[in-house]
Amino acid sequence: MARLLMWVMLIHFIKRSWQQDCKDFIERKSFDCGFSYDGSQPSLRCESMIPSDGPVDENFYFLQIYWKEEITNLHDNQSLFQTYLNSPFSSTSMFYKCESIWRNFIDSDPSVLSLHCLKRRNCLQHVSGLISKWRVKKVEIYNAKSSNIFKIINEFHFLQEIDLHDNLLLNLSDLNYGNINQARILSLRNNNLDDVPDGIFSKLIFLETLDLSHNRIELLTNHSLGNLFNLKTLNLSLNSISEISRNHFSGQPNLRFVYFINNNLQSIKEDTFVNNILLTSIDLSYNPLKILPGGLLHNLKNLELFACSSCNISEIPDGLFIDSLKLKTADFSYNSIENVSLKTFEKQALLEYINLQYNKLTALPDLRNKTYLIALHFYHNELLSLNTNLTIEAPSLKYLNVSENKIEHLSDNHVKNYRDLEDFDLSKNRITTVQLGITNNIVNIRNLILSHNFVRKFDIQWRTLRVLENLYMDFNEITHLELPPCIPSVKQTVTFTFQHNKISTLKMNSLLEDEKRIITDRMMAGCLFNGLSKNFVDISHNPLNCDCKLYPFYNYLKEKRRIKLDTFFNQANITCSEPPRLKNASLISLPEDAFSCSFSTDCPPPCTCGIRGKDNQTFVNCSETGLREIPQNAPVETTVLYFNKNYLEDINSLNNPCWEKLTEVHLDDNGLVDIPENWNIPENLQYLSVRSNKLKDLPEYLKNFIANRSDFELLFGGNDKNCSCSSKDLKRFLKENKDFVIDIDDIVCKIESNGTQSLLPLYTIPNSVLCAIPVILGFDPTVTVLSLSAGFIFLIMILLVYYKQKQLIMSFIYIYCDEIFPCCFNESDDDDDKEFDAFVAYSSCERDIVMEILHELEEKEPHFQLCIHERNWLPGRFISDNIVDSVQNSKRTIVILSNNFISSPWFRLELRAAIFQVSGDRKNKLIVIMADKSTTLDDIDTEIRHVISKRTYLVWGERWFWEKLRYVMPRKSCFESTEFDKIDNVDPMRRNSDIALIDTV
Q1: pLDDT tens column, 293-324
Q2: Cys bridge to 381: 195, 347, 348, 361, which one at CB 3.0-4.6 A?
């Protein structure tokens, strides 16, 4: 009871201590708070302030309060904020103690609070008395469903930021601006406001930012904004204001940023900003101005950004920026400007960004003294050419976009002045010629975009593009392409895309030469990156002519084991357009001999002639022409004949001298019955295909010709399948020359068995089957021979398995077929008079093993009687006498062989007695059990080791251990027990080392 009382007191003390701690630091710390109201969910967020002087606190405190519901019933003099503080907080409210390093991360990642801050929820009860309205510096109200909530603003006299947005019930006149005159930021965006009462903001003398965007304001009077001397940012975008003048901004002399985007301004007076000389940014975009007064920006010496995008203007006055020497950004995009004079940006040395896209420019001025210029956008104009000195004095230029113009030519002169251009976009022009690097000048462009042009002549010296990363040439009219070779000085990977052109031929000379040089020339080491190519090329969707000239490229794609400087991606869409027979075929899937160049000289009709790409051999192709005999004329150097799928019955016509140089003959699907003896085989013939004919055999002279060749390819499959004894010669030829017979497995014979047919390769069928007598009275010799063969093989397999796994099989029968075993296997009665079934010789270190063996063999069926020295020896007798007596009175001797036992002085005596007992006996009288696989026989006498090595060992704990042990124990059976699985082919390393001599099953 006393202990419980102590715990209660301790908990109470800790709780009081925490409460006092919360009260102390809440009173001691200064908090900045913000009140937020979203629809019907009020909340308060407070954060401890950073001390202005003194040491920086390593911790800061964060308070987040949510109220359960909105307060609706409120008396006139009652404080709404205090009522909230006195109301119950929701369960999600929390007080946090955080390390100062996390202060700036809370807004971007609220999970910081739960992951890195300490929760102190018990501190919330002190908040209502210590967090006052004086600490609230920010109010945000949006989606308000009642106008009453806006009254809370009047309670906070030190507000710095007021954000009232997306409210339909806001009335500006309801706000007591005298109470909030400390505000620096006032946002009233998207509140459906249609006017700004005169002088309504005049009491906000410290106001710096005023946001009235996304409303319906149509008119500003001269007094709408009042005298807001500290105002720096004014946002009136997305309203319907049609006019502004100098009087509108005369009371805001410190204005820096004016945003007047998307109003209804149709004109603007020249002196509008005459009183605002500190302006740095003006955005008048999306107004139907049509004309900009030339003096609009005079005296604005601090102006850095001017934007008038989509203002419907047709020109930029020459003197518009005459005083704006600090100008960095000029945006006149989406207008109708036709000309920009030299004087427009003449004095703007700090200019960084010019946007004139979507205009009607036909020419550009040279941009002088533009050291800091980074980006030029002239997209979608009517430029006819590029100035050669456009950016001669703009060394920092990174982005140049002149896409969608009418430029017709690109050469070295246009790019010579670029020092490190990141992106050069020339897409969607009318460029027909590209010549780069011709003058050996380095082209310093990283991403060159020339897609969607009309480029026909494409001449680039690749090695001058040292910084190139991407070249886009898609959708042009290139017909011939030299594949990009190595650029050793390039350290990065380079991507070249030529999709959707008219490329029919590819040249690879430079590429292949570089690949040869890279092996021997150290200067070429930069061509690869970690042994892989740095060039990635896409030539998909082009009308390639897949003739003999394209074969090197095909071979380049197919080869795997070689150094490659170019990697081609999107290969599935690299297809052929010519010749017609290959139209739309995937290049990579074609066979090698598909690539050829046709010619008609001396070509016999209706055949076609040409040169093969893979070996430059001349061929005549008469396939599928309906011919019944081979033509008697051919081009002089013809070495290949294709005569497939015709009606050729004999090949005597091949004896014509025009075919004497043949190295390949293709005669598939012709109905050939035989090959005549008088065919003069071309002496250089290396390939003969006679597939799918009616041939039964090959003439002897042809077989001899093939057999005497060092290299030959024969295809004979699909011919006559009705084999007989006469097929033995063909079978012998096939087996002796199987390296030359490409389709040897397709040369098959029909084999009938019990009314069913099967096809077997001829070279695998025994001669006895080929020469079998016909089927008589239902007797099928083929089936009989095959059945006998299968039965013989099965019997051999059974005997082999029995020989290899005899012990395991017998052990299994012995243990699990207990009724069968005694009837089949009898043990001799010679040992029936012996007292023990087995004597166990072991070292005391292996006593645990012996005890487990005793338990297993003596207590479980079948029961055995074992003899061990510590239980069965008579005290007082000599140990040697006990050993000899135990061995002689036991049917078996079990030796637990271990390194400890081998080192024992009694080991040799016990083992010699057992060896004497089993000498000349082929029964399993001696059973050796290895205690573990680490036991070694190296320290045993040679004589004993020789005897042990002739026995097969058991290993303690191996698979099937108990089955094997029971099997070799004494048991009466019908036959003399054979020796315990002696393994003749035991690895000598296993017999004479510490490895177990019986494999696990």
Answers
A1: 999 999 999 999 999 999 999 999 989 999 99
A2: 361
Q: Which residues pair with 947 in a beta bridge?
A: none
Q: Residue 957, Cα to own-chain centre: how many angstroms?
A: 48
Whole-angstrom distance, CA of residue 219 vs CA of residue 222: 10
The torsion angles phi and psi of 918, rounded to 5 degrees, stand at -100, -5
HSE at residue 884, side-chain half, CA atoms within 13 A, is 5
- CB-CB neighbours of 51 under 10 Å: 11
Buried b vs exposed e over 189-217: b needs ≥16 C-beta within 10 Å? bbbebeebeeebbbbbeebbbbbbbbbeb
Radius of gyration of the chain (CA): 51
In SS3 terms, 425-487 reads as ECCCCCCCEEEECCCCCCCCEEEEECCCCCCCEEEECHHHCCCCCEEECCCCCCCEEECCCCC
Chain centroid to CA 438: how far?
40
The confidence band for 565, taking pLDDT boundaries of 50, 70 and 90, is: confident
Q: How far apart are CA 873 and CA 704, in angstroms?
A: 85
| Residue pair 392/415 in contact by the 8 Å Cβ criterion | no
Q: What SS3 state is found at 858?
A: helix
Cα gap 364→87, rounded to integer Å: 69
Cβ neighbourhood burial of 313 (10 Å; 0-12, 13-18, 19+): buried
Q: In which element (H, E) is residue 620 found?
A: strand 618-621
Phi, psi of 901 (to 5 degrees): -70, -40
Burial class for 110, CB neighbours closer than 10 Å (0-12, 13-18, 19+)? exposed
Whole-number Å distance between alpha carbons of 443 and 422 = 12
3-state SS class at 536: strand
pLDDT digits (tens, 9 = 90+) for 284-300: 999 999 999 999 999 99
CA–CA separation, 306 vs 776, rounded Å?
A: 108
Hey, what amino acid is at 270?
Answer: E
Give the angle subtended at the CA of 672 by the CAs of 581 and 645, to the nearest 5°. 10
Which is nearest to 904 in space by CA: 881, 925, 879?
879
Helix (H) or strand (E) holding 704: helix 700-707
pTM: 0.67
Sheet with 687-689, strands from edge to edge, namely 596-599, 608-612, 618-621, 638-642, 664-666, 687-689, 713-715
Burial class (CB in 10 A: 0-12, 13-18, 19+), 617: middle
Q: What are phi and psi of 25, to 5 degrees?
A: -75, -25
Residue 952 has what pLDDT? 67
Please state, in angstroms and as integers, the Cα–Cα distance from residue 615 to each residue in 555, 587, 595, 662, following that order: 12, 18, 10, 14
- Across 406-439, b (16+ Cβ under 10 Å) vs e yields ebebbbbebbebbeebbbbbbbbbebbebbbbee
Alpha-carbon gap, residue 690 to 447, rounded angstroms: 56
In this predicted model, what pLDDT tens digit does every residue of 180-236 receive, in sequence order? Answer: 888 999 999 999 999 899 888 988 999 999 999 999 999 998 888 889 999 999 999
Cis peptide bond prior to 862, omega within 30° of 0? yes
500 conformational bin, left if phi > 0, alpha if psi -120 to 50, beta if neither: left
Beta strand 748-753 with 756-761: parallel, antiparallel or unpaired? antiparallel
Distance set, CA 343 to CA 280, 347, 366 (Å): 21, 8, 10
Who's near 497: CB < 8 A, 6+ residues apart?
Answer: 451, 470, 471, 472, 473, 474, 537, 538
With contact defined as beta carbons under 8 Å apart, do 81 and 152 qualify? Answer: yes
What separation, in Å, do the N-terminal and C-terminal C-alpha atoms of the chain show?
Answer: 68
For 969-992, b/e burial (b = at least 16 CB within 10 A) is bbbeeeeebeebbebeebeeebbb
